[in-house]
Amino acid sequence: MSAALAIAALIACLAAAATWHAWREGRRLRARLERSAEELQHLRQSFRRFAPAEVIEGLIQGTGAAPEKREVTVLFADLVGFTALSERLEPPVLVRVLNGYFDRMSRAIADHRGHVSKFIGDGILALFGALAPNPWQADDAVRAALAMRAALAAYNKDLAAEGLPRLAIGIGIERGVVIAGLIGTPDLMEFTVVGRAVNLAARIQAATREHTVDVLVTANVRATLDGQIRLRELPPAHLKGVDAPVAIWAVEGRHGSDGHHCRGIASTT
Amino acid sequence: MAPSNFVTGDITVDDIRVDVDLNGSGLVPDSGIGIDADAAAFDGNYALEPAAADPTLVDVNQLGALAVGFTGFVTSFEGICNVPIIGHSTRVTHGPGRAGTPRSDTPHPCRRARPSPGARRPPSVQGSDAGCLGSRRAEPAGSQGFLIRTTSPMATIRDVEWLPPLLEQHRDPARVARIKARAGRVQGTIGYFMASDWVPEAAAELNVALFTRTHLDHDLADLVGLAVSQGNSCRYCFAATRTLLLMVGYPRERIARLEQNLAGADLDARTRGAIAFAHRLSRCDPHPSAADVDALRHVGIQGAAYRELVAAIGLWVFFNRTSTLAALPPEFMEALPDRWFVKAFRPFVAGRVNRAFRRRGQPVALPASMRDGPSAATVNALDGLPVAPTLRRAIDAMWASGGLSRRSRAFVCTTIARALQCTTAEAEAAAVLAHEGVEAITLEGMLAHLDAPGLTDAERVLVRFARETVWYEPAPVQRRAAEVRARLGEREFVEAIATASIANMLCRLHLALVVV
User: Fold this and answer.
1) B439 to chain A, minimum CA–CA distance in Å?
2) What's this model's pTM, rounded to 2 decimal places?
3) DSSP string covering A181-250, please?
4) Which among B82, B335, B390, B488 is placed 20 to 30 Å from A29, CA to CA?
5) Is A264 inside a domain boundary?
6) CB A48 to CB B473 under 8 A?
7) Which of B256, B418, B476 lies closest to A34 in CB terms?
8) What is the distance between the alpha carbons of residues A123 and A100, in angstroms, rounded to a whole number?
9) Do A119 and B155 touch (CB under 8 A)?
10) Nearest-angstrom CA–CA distance, B252 and B337
C-alpha cells in the first residue's frame, strides 16, 4: 500500500515538474515571440521613411513586394571638386565637412517632400513621388534644388569662418517612369528605383560643370514646372550613353518670394 | 568623531543596458563605433534605515527610478566610412527600468548613500556630432559591461515624435450639454475645436456614428480602427482605441500582440481581410481595386457590411487627421490603461463602457431631403446606415459655416482630390470655385503648381497645407500645421483642419463606394 502511495506521489511529482517545465518553456517562447513582434514593429515604423508602406508590409508578411512602375522625379546632386578636396583635408575634418553637407542637403530635400534614396560617394540620389503619389513632384524637386543652393551658401559661410574651403554642387533633375522596388541581394537589399530617368539625372548633373551652372533640368521637368521658376535655355547636351542631344535648362531662381501673409481669409457670407 | 547625517558605502549597480540610437540612412560598408564616458552619475533618492540589531549597519533602499547621466561622453568611429556618412546625433539612454538598482537586500556596513532630492539628471545624453549611417547591432563593449543595442528613434507608435497641442482647450459647458443631448455623448477633445461653430457638433456625432455598428461586429470594427490609426501613426486615436478595447474586456496580452503585429496576429480570416482592406483604403496608394473588394467578399464582408466597413475606415481617416493636425495630447490616453484605478475597476466597468461606447444600430433610410448636396453620391452610397444622415449633416454644416470662405474650402477640397486622383471630388470642388467666380486659368494653375496669380496669400497657405494632409508623418505635418496656425486665426485654423480631414475622408469613401 505504502509502495503504491510512494509511486503515486512520485508520478504526481513528475507530472508537476513536467507541468512546471512546460509552463516555463511556454513563457519563454511567448517572450521570444513578443520580442520578435516588437522588432517587426520597429521595422515597420522605422522604414516608413525609406519605402512605401505596401513594400514594408510585404516584407513583414513574407509575401514580398512586387516591383512597380512609378512616375518619379529624380534629383541627382554631386559635389564639384570633391576628389581634390578629399586630398587636401584630414580625414576627420573631411568627414565632418561632409556630414554637415549631407545633413543640410537632406533637410532641404525632406522639406520639399523628397526622400534621399542613397548616398553614392559624395553624391545624393533623391526621389520625389517614390514613396507616395505626388502630382507636384517636379515643382517640389526644383524647389528642393533651390533650397539646397541656399543651404549650401549658408554652409559655405560657416566653412569660410573656420578657414575651410567652399563647397560647390551640381544638380541634375529628370522626370520619368522608373521601376521601383526592392533591389539587391538577399543580404543587402534596398528600396530604390532604376530606369532611364535615374541615369539621365546623373548625366545632366555632370553637365553642370561644362555649363558652369549648378542646377539643370530636362524638358520633362520643364513641361510640368511652375512658371514662377526662372529658367534659361542652354544648348542641347551630348550626354554619355544617350544617343540624341538632350534639351536642358538652367534653373536661375524664382520670380517673387515665398513670404506670404494672410489676411481676409474669413468668409463674409 | 564621525560626521553626522553622512553615511559612506559602496553601491553595486548591476545589469546596465545602454541603448544607442543612430540617426541616419544609407550604407556603411565598414565602420566601428566606440563610445566612452569619463564618468557615469546615477542620481536617485535612497531611504536609510539603521538595522535594529546593529545600528552601525544601515540598510539602503532606492526610492523610485534612478536618473543616469554621463559626463565626458564621446563617440568615435574607427577608420573612415567608405561611403560618406550622414547623421547628426548619437543618443545614448539607459535601458528603461533595468538600470541601476542597488542591492539593498544585503546591508553592507560601508555603503555610501547620499540622498539627493531635487535636481535629477536627464536620462539621456546627447553625443557628439559624428554619426554613422544605418543601424548596426554592436557587441557588448567588453570590460565596460555595456550592451549596446541600436534601436530606431521611432521604435513603436508611442515613440513617434508628436508636437505639443496646437490648439487650446476651451470650456463651454452649455454648448457641451447641447451637443451631448443631441449626439448622446461627447468625447473630451471637442474642447479643442470650440472656436468653430460646427466642428465640435460634427465630431461628436461622427464619433457616435463610428461606434454604432449595424452589420459589423464591434471587435472587428475596433481592430480596424486600431489598424488605420497605427498606419497613420496617430498616437491619440491609437491610444484611445487601445484603451477602449482594454476597457471592454480585451486581454492586455492580446492587445499587446495586436499592436505589435496587427496584420500577422492570430486573427480570423474575416478580421485579417478587413484590416488589409483598411490599410489599402487608408493609404490609397494604390487605390482599392475590384480585387480588394472580391477578397473581402470571400471572407464574408459584402453589401451593407462592406459599406459599413468603408464608412468606419473613412471616419478613422477623419479622426486621425483632426487629432494629428491639432496635435491632440496623447499622453493621458496612453497612460490610462496602466493607471491603478483602471486596472482595479476594469472588470466592473467593462459592461458599462461597452454599452456607453459601442452601440448596435438599426438600418436607417436616408430621407429624401438629405439626398442632395455636396458629395451626394458618396453619402447616398451609405444609404441604410446610421452614419449616412450624420455625414450629410456634417458636410452641410461645413459648407454653410463662415469660418472659412467657400472659395478657400473648395481650394482645400480640390487640392486633396487632385492628390488622391479622385476626379469626381475634384470636379465637384471645381464647380464650387467656378460658382465663386474663380477663373479656369487660376484653378488650372493652382492644381498644376499649388499656386496661381489669382490666389490670395491665405489660399496659398491653405492649398499647400491641404496637400500635406494626404500622406504624412505626424511630426513634419504638425510642424507645417504650426506654421499655418501662426498665420491664421484660431477659428480659421480649426476650420482648415476639419475641412482637410473631411475632404480626405470623402475622397477615400468615394473611391471605395462609387468608383470601385
Assistant:
1) 18
2) 0.73
3) EEEE-SSSEEEEEESHHHHHHHHHHHHHHHHT-SEEEEHHHHHT--TTEEEEEEEEE--TT-SS-EEEEE
4) B335
5) no
6) yes
7) B256
8) 14
9) no
10) 9
Which CATH number does the domain housing residue A179 bear? 3.30.70.1230
Mean of pLDDT over chain B: 80
Number of structural domains, chain A?
A: 2
Compute, in degrees rounded to 10, the torsion defined by CA atoms A233, A238, A241, A244: 80
ipTM comes to: 0.74
Chain A nearest CA to B492, separation (Å): 7
Residue ranges for chain A with pLDDT beneath 70: 1, 34-54, 57-65, 256-269
Coil, strand or helix at B246 = helix
| Beta-strand relationship, B17-22 and B90-94 | antiparallel
B479-515: burial string, b at 16+ Cβ within 10 Å, e else: ebbeebbebbebbbbbbbbbbbbbbbbbbbbbbbbeb
Q: Does B175 reside within a domain?
A: no
Interfacial A residues in 192-221 facing B (CB < 8 Å): none
Sign of CA dihedral B157, B161, B164, B165: negative
Radius of gyration over every alpha carbon of chain A, rounded to an integer in angstroms: 28
Give B12-41 pLDDT, tens digit per residue: 666 666 666 655 444 444 455 667 777 777
Domain ranges, residue A196 = 64-254
Nearest C-alpha neighbor of B408 from the set B377, B391, B432: B432
